Amino acid sequence: MSVFAQPATPTPNDARQLWQLIDYVAVDYGGAVVNGAVVSEFEYAEMLDFTDNAAKQIQALPPRPTKATISAAIGDLRAAVVRKADSAEITRLAHHANSLLLAAYPMPMAPRTLPDLAKGAALYAAQCASCHGAKGAGDGALAANLEPKPIAFTDAERAGSRSLMALYQVVSQGVEGTSMTSYATLSEEDRWAVAFYIGTMSNDAAARQRGEQVWRQDASLKDRFSDLTAVSTVTEQAASQTMPRDTARDVIAYLRSHPAAVEAGRPTGLALARLRLKESLDAMRAGDRAQATKLGLSAYLDGFEPIEPVVGARNQSLLTSVEDGMLAYRSAVATGTPSQAEAAAAHLDDLFAQVDKDMGDSKAEPMTTFIGALTILLREGLEALLIVIGMIAALKKARRQDVLKHVHAGWISALGAGVLTWVIATYLVTISGASREVTEGVGAVFASVVLLSVGMWMHQKSSAGRWQSYLEEKLSAAMTRRSMWALFALAFIAVYREVFETVLFYSALSADGNSSALIAGFATAIILLGIIAWVMLRTTARMPIGRFFSITSIFVAVLAVILIGKGAAALQEAGWVEATPVWAPRIDILGVFPTVETVAAQLIVLAIALSGFRLNFFSARKSSARQPAS
């Protein structure tokens, strides 16, 4: 790493730095002592210093039941270093101490997403090669002037006792007392990318090729290296205890250079939903409701939700049944008995079987794709259209054409953001179920609150009468820059949340390959929405202004009630809001869902709207009574 970066600030209360100190001893002790004799006074002094610091840092960590055991393990390691034990014993003691530390003080041990090794190589060349050398041999241009010398990542013996997590910790925190500084300013993803790339430097293409062959032939390896955590934390030395050392070296070489191979065999879709549901039930039977709730939520968000657009496009009623079943299961886990949770899970399993039967491996018929594309865009677009057209009509009635540009900018920006979302969802990353539900939920709640306030304001003015004079005298002054940007935000949110949903559904439909039918359904829906918009604008243009605002205020309040129900339901599916099932009809178009929370949210918004309308009515009567007869 470059020696010109600022040194890392020690954090003695951080378990990660303690883990790093102990791991450093496990990896580098072999360069200090050989056969009981010190071969490098500097490195041996460093081992003594690190173990001494480790013994102090464990005392500074928060209390844990096993803290004394960890301290004793570090003491054993320190004593072994003092008596110049062989490197195998030091490695064993260090790994034992660190395993106890991780159990007591959990910390992230793997990247959240697949590391980008190409980016890791670029970052290494820019930040690390000047010291460690272009090939990782410790022979960079600055290496001659550094003491201690930079690590040679090509040293196979040292690499055999070093995990990727250890490399990540060093990149993140640096090593005190050396030229290795912290690179915490890099993103977490970039630091993991560098760590994975460095982890490939001690092996060659032949080892990786042999590892790939073994990986494909030995199915048991899939269980041993089941996820990125296993790849990130394992060392060649540890793996060689249960398999031939050459095999361990080759398999680890392959997985470090091709981490996607680990993810390729993991369950997805309904398989993952079933697995998480089973794990959730096991946790429920063990009395761990919190873990059961977490796994139940994962069954929906990580398992079923990604395939939800495909299911909805082919069988909307089945999708509704699964969503209701998921909410019922999570409610049973939260407040019910294990037997109630088992019954809810059994019902879900039956629904999953129906999804399997309906979906299968067959492609949808072109007519099915056409109808799906048409109805999805009509359903999602109509709601946004009603809000935007209502805003445009109201501003035209109020003779504020100058403000229309903010509304137009809002919905046009939302369409642009929708195109960007499609590019991201198709080519860059997978949009998680939680992200989708939160986006829809927060957007709907925001729109509902704004629409409620707008509806009450419109009703107040329509009740007061004398609209023409009010508009001419008051509205220009009342329309501030802040309210203009509020109009932009409302138009953007109202359109984007619908575009976001449409993008995900259309991405699912496109997998069936009926592109002509998909485009035809899209085009037909656009034409129908255009006709609806034209009719609405023509109708409102001919309506008397007082009547227009009176009717529009009621219409906007109804939209607010619908959106608050949809928003609450989306946040329930994301796990942000509790879900308590109640007997009630499910009417998606009206935002009515059979849970206490969604119904209560709609009743509250409806009560606020009715109270506001009632107050406006009586205020208008009093004002009219005080005015002298003309």
Describe the structure.
The radius of gyration is 32 Å and the shape is elongated. Helix 2 runs antiparallel to helix 3 and helix 17 runs antiparallel to helix 19. The longest helix has 32 residues. It has four domains: 90 residues, no CATH class; 61 residues, no CATH class; 91 residues, no CATH class; 259 residues, no CATH class. A two-stranded antiparallel sheet has the order 1-2. The protein starts with 14 loop residues before the first helix and ends with a helix. It is built from 28 helices and two strands. It is mainly α. The N terminus is likely disordered.
Write the topology of this structure.
Blueprint: H1 15-28, E1 33-34, E2 37-38, H2 41-60, H3 67-82, H4 87-104, H5 117-127, H6 129-132, H7 156-159, H8 164-173, H9 188-198, H10 205-217, H11 220-224, H12 228-233, H13 236-239, H14 245-257, H15 260-264, H16 269-285, H17 289-304, H18 308-314, H19 316-335, H20 338-359, H21 366-397, H22 404-428, H23 433-464, H24 467-478, H25 481-510, H26 515-542, H27 545-573, H28 596-626
Antiparallel strand pairs: 1-2
Helix pairs in contact: 1-2, 1-4, 1-8, 2-3, 3-4, 5-9, 8-9, 10-14, 16-17, 16-20, 17-19, 18-19, 18-25, 19-20, 21-25, 21-26, 21-27, 22-25, 23-25, 23-27, 23-28, 27-28
Structural class, by secondary structure, is mainly alpha
Record the strand order, biggest sheet: 1-2
Strand content: under 5%
- Helical amount among residues, as a percent range? over 70%
What does the overall shape look like?
Answer: elongated
Unreliable segments (pLDDT under 50, ≥5 consecutive)?
1-13, 464-478
Summed over residues and divided by their number, the pLDDT gives a mean of 80
Helix count equals 28
Record field, number of beta strands:
2
Mind summarizing the main beta sheet?
2 strands, antiparallel
How large, in whole angstroms, is the Cα Rg?
A: 32 Å
Tally of discrete structural domains: 4
